[in-house]
Amino acid sequence: MLPNFKNPALLTRALTHRSYLNEHPEVEPEDNERLEFLGDAVLDFVVGAWVYNHFPEMQEGNLTRVRSALVRTDTLAEFARHLDLGPALRLGRGELASGGRERDNLLCATFEAVIGAMYLDAGIPAVETFMEPLLLYVSRKVVSHVERYDPKSTLQEWAQSNKLGTPRYLTVDTSGPDHARTFTVEVHVNGKVFGRGEGTSKQAAAQTAAQAALESLGLI
Questions:
Q1: What's the CA gap between 177 and 183, in Å, rounded?
Q2: What is the Cα 81 distance to its own chain's centre?
Q3: How far apart (Å, rounded) are the C-alpha atoms in residues 28 and 199?
Q4: Rounded CA separation 171/203 (Å)
Q5: Is the dihedral of CA 117, 120, 121, 125 positive or negative?
Q6: Yes or no: is domain 151-217 CATH 3.40.1180.10?
Q7: pLDDT greater than 80 at residue 219
C-alpha cells in the first residue's frame, strides 16, 4: 500500500504516462519520465544500502548480483503489481489498447517514478521504510538463486576465468510497434554464439541470452 503523500500532485504525475499527456495536454504539465529518472537513482542507492546492511558476510560480487536482481525490470514490475499500480495508471488510448497496464517495462518505469515522487515528497527515510517489506519479500528468492538473477555477470566471470575475453551482446532483430518493441540479442564469447534471448528491452533480452548461455554450458 502506498503511503499518503503530502503533495498528492507528485503521485498523480508519477502515474501519468506520456501517452496520456499527449491526449490531455491541459490536465497535467508533466509526465512521469523525469520522476522515473530520479526514482531509478534513488532505488540504486536505497537497495544497495539495504543489501549491504542485511548481508554483512556477503562478498562484493554477490552483493552486486543481489542488488541487480532487486532492481531488475521484472522485479520492479512485480512490486508494481503487488501495489496494484496498473489500474491507477493514466494511459493514452493506444497504450490501453496494447495492454500497457500489464507490460513489465511500463510497470517498472511507473514504480521508479513513484519512488522518485516519494523521495521528493518525504526524503530517503520514507523510501527506505516503504521498500523494506518489499525487499524482504523478494530477497529470499533472489539470494537462494543469485546466479540466475544476474546471468550476465556470471557468464562474464566464466568467460574471463577461461581466458575467453568479455562476452559481446549483439542486437540481431527488433520487431513490433514503437510502443511495444521486442528485441532479440545474441551473446558471443570468443567469436562464437553461446546464447540467444528476447525481451521488451535490449537489457532484458541480453539477460535472457546470458541465461541461455549458462544453461547450455551446464553452469546452472
A1: 11
A2: 13
A3: 31
A4: 10
A5: positive
A6: no
A7: no
Beta partners for residue 175, in sequence order: 182
Confidence band, pLDDT 50/70/90 cuts, at residue 203: confident
CB-CB contact of 152 with 220 (8 Å): no
Grid cell, residue 166, equals: 568479455
Cell of 193: 554464439
Asked if pLDDT for residue 55 goes beyond 60, the answer is: yes
Residue ranges covered by each domain of the chain: 8-144, 151-217
Query: Mean pLDDT over residues 203-210, rounded?
Result: 87
User: What tens digit of pLDDT does each residue of 158-191 get?
Assistant: 998 889 999 999 999 998 877 778 899 999 999 9
Handedness of CA 5, 10, 11, 14 (dihedral sign): negative
CA distance 22 to 19: 5
Q: Do the first three CATH levels of 8-144 and 151-217 match, i.e. the same topology?
A: no
The residues carrying an active-site annotation are: 40, 112
Please, what is the angle between helix 124-144 and helix 104-122, to 10°? 140
Q: Which CATH architecture has domain 8-144?
A: Orthogonal Bundle (1.10)
Segment 138-143 long-range contacts (CB within 8 Å, at least 24 positions apart): 138/70, 138/75, 138/78, 138/79, 139/51, 139/54, 139/66, 139/70, 142/66, 142/69, 142/70, 142/75, 143/55, 143/66
What gap in Å lies between CA 54 and CA 66, rounded to an integer?
11
